[in-house]
Amino acid sequence: MLEEANLSVGAVAKRCGIKVSTLHFYEEKGLIKSLRNQGNQRRYKRDVIRRISVIKAAQKMGVSLQEIEQVFAKLPNKRTPDKDDWARLSKAWQAQLNERIKYMERLRDSLTGCIGCGCLSMKNCPIYNPEDVLANDGVGAVILDRKA
Amino acid sequence: MLEEANLSVGAVAKRCGIKVSTLHFYEEKGLIKSLRNQGNQRRYKRDVIRRISVIKAAQKMGVSLQEIEQVFAKLPNKRTPDKDDWARLSKAWQAQLNERIKYMERLRDSLTGCIGCGCLSMKNCPIYNPEDVLANDGVGAVILDRKA
DNA sequence: ATAAAACCTCAAGCAAGGTTGAGGTAAAGT
DNA sequence: ACTTTACCTCAACCTTGCTTGAGGTTTTAT
What we know:
CATH architecture of the largest domain in chain A: Orthogonal Bundle
Low-confidence stretches of chain A: 120-124, 128-148
Radius of gyration of chain A: 20 Å
Largest sheet of chain A: 2 strands, antiparallel
CATH class of the largest domain in chain A: Mainly Alpha
Largest interface: A-B, 59 and 59 residues
CATH topology of the largest domain in chain A: Multidrug-efflux Transporter Regulator, Chain: A, Domain 2
Oligomer: homodimer
Helix content of chain A: 40-55%
Distance between the termini of chain A: 37 Å
Structural class of chain A: mainly alpha
Shape of chain A: elongated
Number of helices of chain A: 5
Number of domains of chain A: 2
Mean pLDDT of chain A: 78
Strand order of the largest sheet of chain A: 1-2
């Protein structure tokens, strides 16, 4: 195979703008894999970079590492995932993302009305309503970091 | 004044769908206040419910408790906040929310392209790009809980 | 050949946002 | 009056997502 695993932790970290410790952490969590060289140092195949990219994108959508791991588990084990594999993932997440966008829009549209309104019981409040649509659809958290 | 502070922790917690411990926690953080009855039990004015409603709404928009506290600090100290006071808050947050929605839309629009694309370096990737617009505008995290 | 830079493991620590439990008091129901 | 429920404080603990540091090895540069 042409699949050389020749990227060092440092190289990957630098390239992805994350810390070496984060790579260790992700590996521990089963999100990425590495091979070892003779001196026990990690060596990565290039696809690790795409994995990290996907992890970061998913996090921005509010997907937890655990959920990401579960989704990654569906990727082919034997071969390096190809474009189609990744496209399937992104498609699933795109739907989630759309729901979240809609949710945020609803939140925006009812924000002033709600905060300023008299619905002190919150039973009828479109914002603070446990029955809210998103509440029941198994959607995770949305997180947009302040540091990108 | 007509401002009776006669709601117990339990009543407020039940009404807001949160735990008593959360009320204690918020009080400790300075987000809400309480008076005490003869037996040292907390008694709340009705406006605490609106505060909690606002806290929850803000959290859903991704505002941290710390930021919420800072914003609450601008509310009148002497009198119970009125509709206009709350409306001012919601207006500020609405702008943030709009930015976040735009960000999510951009994320959505570039998701498939990016994950499936060949930009392994991420330097050009609209998703995984530290220079991303939101990175620099001091906007916090967006969190939508799975439990509403 | 040696010194510096990069890497290794493992344990501990941090921040946010709460939750849980122990030990004790107050208020409410019957 | 007595029991149960609600409340009090304070300290410890939990989860997520990492970061930091100590003590030691490997690579790389000169």
